[in-house]
Structures are given as C-alpha cells and as structure tokens.
Write a structure and sequence with these properties.
Chains A, B: Pfam families: Peptidase_M20. Chains A, B: This is M20 family metallo-hydrolase. Chains A, B: Its cofactor is Zn(2+). Chains A, B: GO terms for molecular function: hydrolase activity, acting on carbon-nitrogen (but not peptide) bonds, in linear amidines; metal ion binding. Chains A, B: Keywords: Hydrolase, Metal-binding, Zinc. Two copies of one chain form a homodimer. By secondary structure, chain A is of the alpha+beta class. Chain A folds into two domains: about 300 residues, 3-Layer(aba) Sandwich (Aminopeptidase), CATH 3.40.630.10; about 120 residues, Alpha-Beta Plaits. The first copy, chain A, contains twelve helices and 17 strands. In chain A, the strands form three sheets. In chain A, strands 1, 2, 3, 4, 5, 6, 14, 15, 16 and 17 form a ten-stranded mixed sheet that branches. In chain A, strands 7, 9, 10, 12 and 13 form a five-stranded antiparallel sheet that branches. The longest helix of chain A is centred in the N-terminal third of the chain and has 22 residues. Chain A is globular. Chains A and B meet through strand 8, helix 8, strand 9, strand 10 and strand 11 of A and strand 8, helix 8, strand 9, strand 10 and strand 11 of B.
C-alpha cells in the first residue's frame, strides 16, 4: 500500500472514533454536539499539521486554506462531518477526509511544481448538512451560498430550545471568515443506494438529483378524553396523521417500481398523553422521483387524500412548509471532467443520479462543481451498519485527487470566480 | 345562595387559578409540577383553616385529617388535583374541593352533635391520577392500596428523566404518614361523556367501569435513508405504527355504535429525523367497551392486524406491556346509598357506567365505596374548554355531603375497617 493510502486509512480510523456508538461500527455526531466539536478540534490539528490555515465562518463552516498562488481563488473540496442519530461512519465524513487527503497530496505536488497551480486549495467541513438536530439540512452551505439568511440559521432551535448560535458557541465554532473567492467545488460521498454495487461501478459520476416535493403538515384536531369521548365526537389529529403516513406508502404502488420514493421520517404528537386524543400532530412527508412528472402526479393524488382525511376525520390538515424541485442537473462539464479522470485511472465508472441532497447541490448553482460517488454495501445509509470497502474508499480518494488536481490546474475555470461566504451580520 | 355554597364557589375560583392557562378557562397542572406544588400548599392552608391536620404519605398523597371520635377509623373522601396538559379545570379538582367542603360542613354538624359521628373524616388529594407525566395513572391510590410498590413508583421517570422521587422532593410533598384505618371511601367527578346531560340526570350513581384492554406496542424496523433506500428494502417502524392507529379506528365500525371505543394517545418515534426511516416506535393503544365480550372479540381482530403488519411491512410488533379488565362493578350497597341520598335531596339521578378509571376504582376493592358523577357540558374532557354549570357543581356537593354524612354515621360500615397506607420503605 502506498504512503498516501496508508496515511488516509490511519486518519480515517481516528476520525471515525469521534461520537462512536459503543458496541457498533457507527457514530452519533449531530451538528454542534460535543462529539462534533471534538472532531473539529482534531481535524483542525490535522489540517494545520499539513500546513493549512484553519478558519471558520459565522455559521460554523470549517475551512482549511492553503495558499499556493498568492491572491488566487480557491478550489474548494469537502463535505460534512456531522451525522444523523445512530448513523454510519462514512456518509459525509468520508467526503471531508478524502477531500483533505486529496489536498495534502496535491499540496506536496504543487510545492514541487508551483508553475502548475493556477488556484489555491481549500478543504471544507460544512456545518449541519444532516438537519436532524437543526432544520433545514445543508444549513452551512445554504448560508455560505446566500440561500439562507445567517440570522435565520443562527436563531434556529433544536428540540430542547437550544439555538444554533448557542450550540456553536458551546463548541467554540463560530468564526469570522467573511468571504472567499471560489473557482470551483468538488465533493465525494458514498452512494446512498445500491445501484453502483449491483452494476459493478466504482466511481459514480453524479449528473443530477432526483426531483422532490417535501411537506411539513400540521394536523389539527381537538383534545378529548381518549376513553370516554364518543367516537363520532372525536377529531383525532393522530388518526389524521396516521392516514397520511399509510397513504404515502400506498402511493408508491401506483407508479412503476422505483419511480417514486415516499417517506415520513418525523412525527410529533401533542399532548402525547396516554388518555388524551391528540389535538395537534406535525408530520414531515417527502415525495422523491427521478421524474418531475411523477412528482406532480403523486402530489395531486396526495392532495386528494388530504381532502378525504379532512372530510372523513374532521381534522384540519395544513401545509405549514413545502419545498419542491424538479430533476436538477449537475453541470455537464464537471461530469465529463470526472469521466476523464476515472478513465485515466482505469476505474469503472458510470453516470448516476443522487436521490439525496448534498452540499454540492448548493455549490453547483454558484461555481463549476464535480460530484463523485463510491459504492456502499447494500446501499445501507443513515444506519450504524453503513459500510464501504477500503478498496472503494481509496479508489474514490484517487479519483477525487485527480479531479481536484485538474481543477487547481485550471479545468472548468470560470471567467469570473464567485465571491462567496457568510457575511457576518452587523 | 347559602353560606356553604358561596364558600365553595369562592374557594373553587381560587383553586382554579393554579396552573391556569393564559387566555383560557383551563389549567395545566401535571403531577408534581410547580403548579401542582403551589396548589397543594394553598390547599394545606385551607384545610388547616378549617381545623384539619394535613399530612402526606411517601408517594405524595395529601390528607386532611379531622378526628371527631378519638381512635376511630376514617371516612375518606376526595379525588386528585393534578391535570393533563392543557386540560379542563374541573376533572379531579372538583372532587377534591367538594370533598373538602363536604367535610367542612359535616365537621360543623358533628361538632354540634358529636353523638352522631361514628367515624372520623379525611379529605384526600391523590398523587398523579392522570399519568400524563409519570406512568401509570392512578399512581398515588395504587401505592396506597398496595397495588403498586412504593419504590417502583418513586423510581418512575418522566420524559426528561426526572424521577417521581425527585419531582416530589422539589415541591416538598413526600411525607411520612404511614397508614390509616379506613372505614369507607367516597368520590365525585364530572362525567367524561354526555349521557347524563342528554338524559337530564344531575347525579350519576356510578355502578361499574367499562371493560378495557390497554397495550403498549413497540414496533421495530430498521434505520435507513428515507430518500435513497429502495422502497422494498425498507422496514419502516412508523408505517407499521400508523397502520395500527388506523386499524384501531376502523375496528370501531365492526361493532354496534357505542360498543367499542379505541384510542392511540401516545406515539414516540426514533430517531424522528427528517431523512431517516424510523427504526423504533412505541405506541399506546386502548380498547374500551361496556362489554367484556366485545373487548375479547376486538382483541382477536387487532391481533390479526398486528400479524398482517408484521408480514406485509417487515417490521416486528411486540406488546411490551398490556393490562386488561372486564366490566368492573362498584359495590351495590354504595350505589343504593347514593340513590337514597339523591332521592332525599330530590335530585334527578340514574345509574351510570364510567368509561374512565378513577382513584375510586382502586379504593372500591378495599373498602365500601361510593362514586358520584355530575354532568359535563357536551361531555368535553381533557380539554381547556371542559365546563360544568355551578348549579350542577353545587348539587353534586350537596349529594356528596349527604353520602359522607351517612358514611360517617356508620352506613356501609364494615366489620373490620381496612388498614391502608403507603408503607415507607426501609
């Protein structure tokens, strides 16, 4: 095994210890938790040890900056180290660690051949990609790209009423990096699905995200004694919500296999007491499809069910937030660049859609962006048993290094690099 | 209005201020909350002002004792002052306050005619009847009657991990009253249903509780990415739970109207994150009926649904706790005593079943017990808008006073009064 690979696997093993869940191979490292904070401090030391300058911005995005070409824009590479509760150790952490190691190797190369570097290198660990503790997901990259106001993000509270501002201060991760000039962005992630494993593909060239429609429903009924109240007198918010959960699953069978994914991940009941009919339930419900037409069709059918629930169960069903997007392409030039690199390295590769969102989804709207996948065994994701073989981790590192090398040498260079960053509010 | 009624309504108005929910007529006074503690301190003063000695036992049951006949057993009368979240101000609080005022009036009578009293008087405010913060419900009377071990109760924790022991200590309501001799028990409550209002009945003579079967289900699936995981690969615990919630409601329509009440009041999801398929859901599900046969039939049908959910949704469904009882009669002699009193007072009255459990359900297994109801407008219960007219409150007070008078004079007197109480653990 070469030195780069060995060094990566060693650091990767250490990195996976932060928030490790006892008796499992997984981690729990929700955004701005103690484990997230400890890992960030360790990561800072790792970056500094390789000559990078570490800075944070006001929403806690952590950057390792290496200036090779004074004053030039940066090629940014990374992902996120935060995790879902009781989750796998790969997910975003693999992207940050391979981004860092790609830059470590390239820093060495460019120090020996400074004439080849056109741009500087920056590693990023985005804040709160997962959105499990603080909503919405992809918070750090959304603020960085100006899609979410800084103050709105900082004021967001978790289930215990702790704000992002307070939580970041507790781990001392709010900083003052104001803005940086970004030439391009690259990210690698384990696939959250099993198509690549099934098709024998080592490097996924991500060319689009699935279309989606996400809802936050509020179902309102009326508190009542859950034993004594006559059944026709009840307006049961939990019953209304349960009908939507079941309807979401049944919707899937109305389309071709694989064309619609639906889910209800979060449901909260008030007052959630043994002998009280619930007066209010909030429910997150997602529709996802590779086809925007399927999403629109599923939306119509879901709204018909909502109307039926309103009528039959006497509850009010309100959409308190919704968010939708059509199939959303990654820039073709980035896909082609990734293909060239994979071909040069003789790694099997194919174009692949991503169902899940990534920080690159935000970045691709601002700068030339490349998104890569490596396979995940059985596609297991957001689960303690998530696993990717070392060979695939190292192949991904190699491909990412090749992509970042080309980007730093000037590939995909825009005429005017974007000036991005988290402006500190006055 | 006579002095007794005026005094009751004045004290009742003060009592309803503890835990009052702003902008409503309701209260939130969960067991051992600050509001519960403040009301108990006020109630202590009220009892002492009428010459009662106030003591607590080790599970926080609050007693006001009045010795009229040195060394004689007590007639116990009361209910509970704790409430559900955002609940009505009547519920158990009416029973405690009318119990106290019945005893205040009788204390006066018996002081003037000491020869009439055969037993002493005690008012009780049972701890945690509601079971919303700490399970199970009827905790105080269950410990007092030896049905629930004291240490098990004290070690019970709420959703924040606070134990009953800690919560009671915070409001300084754990005491050392060891045991008392109880001759009989009386309780009054607002009806949690609308049959009395519809039938024009002022005093309900409670002659039995409905049969019931209560379940705590644990539904186990597997954590997965809620967007990317292929639908056939999912084992969604929330979907399994939702199917049971819907099935519980649909079960009702398989029986004659009014013969089956079902409910799911509490449902907790793990990890309850926007993009994670739930791995575990706990769900409380109740079946209630005036008929034990209906319960048994509904149980079979529910188990068939559970099996279907296991098969079709790939989740495990486990019953982690269950508790059932058949139609459970109150002693006929107590019903007859209550009928006599209501007839003497020319108050309309009728026998009535209770769907909900009450502390009297525990007490009736130990001592002669009388349970009365007054009507509740539209049967609204466990809701901020719960309401009972003053006339009905006062009629109930009059009937309860009549019942307690007869009990104290020796009616229903058992040969050997029960020695009951919360033994302090060594």
């Amino acid at each position: 095994m070469n030195e780069i690979n060995e060094s990566f696997l060693t650091d990767w093993a250490v990195s996976s210890k932060f928030g490790a869940v006892k008796g499992t191979n997984g981690v729990e490292r929700q955004a701005a938790s103690a484990a997230d904070g400890e890992q960030r401090k360790w990561f800072e030391g790792l970056l500094e040890g390789h000559g990078f300058t570490v800075k944070r911005d006001a929403i806690g995005n952590q950057f390792g900056l290496l200036e090779l070409v004074p004053g030039a824009p940066f090629v940014l590479v990374g992902s996120h180290m935060d995790s879902q509760p009781t989750a796998g150790r790969f997910d975003g952490a693999y992207g940050v660690m391979s981004g860092a190691h790609a830059c470590f190797a390239l820093a060495e190369e460019f120090r020996n051949h400074p004439e080849r570097a056109r741009f500087n290198l920056a590693v990023v660990n985005w804040f709160n990609e997962e959105g499990s503790r603080f909503k919405p997901s992809m918070m750090g990259s959304s603020v960085f790209t100006g899609k979410l106001p800084l103050d709105v993000a900082l004021d967001t509270v978790d289930g215990q009423g702790v704000s992002v501002r307070e939580a970041l201060d507790l781990i001392d991760e709010r900083g003052d990096l104001d803005r940086i000039e970004v030439a391009s962005y690259a990210e690698i992630h384990v696939q959250q699905g099993r198509s690549m494993e099934e098709d024998g593909v080592t490097i996924g060239l991500v060319n689009a995200t699935w279309a989606a429609h996400k809802f936050e429903f509020k179902i309102t009924g009326e508190q009542a004694h859950s034993g004594a109240t006559a059944m026709p007198d009840r307006r049961d918010a939990l019953l209304g919500a349960a009908r939507l959960v079941v309807a979401a699953r049944e919707l899937v069978d109305e389309f071709e296999p694989g064309m619609l994914h639906t889910a209800c991940g979060e449901l909260n009941v008030y007052p959630n007491s043994p002998v009280v009919v619930a007066s209010e339930v909030t429910l997150l419900l997602d529709l996802r499809s590779p086809s925007g037409d399927v999403i629109r069709d599923a939306y119509e059918k879901l709204m018909a069910t909502v109307e039926k629930v309103r009528q039959n169960d006497g509850v009010d069903v309100e959409i308190i937030a919704e968010h939708s997007w059509d199939q959303n392409p990654y820039p073709e030039a980035g896909v082609e660049l990734a293909r060239e690199v994979a071909a040069e390295l003789s790694l099997t590769h194919d174009r692949v859609l991503t169902v899940a969102g990534h920080d690159s989804t935000n970045m691709k709207d601002e700068v030339p962006t490349v998104m890569l996948f490596v396979p995940s065994v059985n596609g297991v994701s957001h689960n303690l048993d998530e696993f990717t073989h070392d060979d695939d981790l190292l192949a991904g590192l190699q491909a990412l290094t090749g992509v970042v090398r080309k980007l730093a040498e000037g590939a995909l260079a825009p005429e005017n690099p974007a000036v991005l960053g988290t402006r500190v509010s006055s």
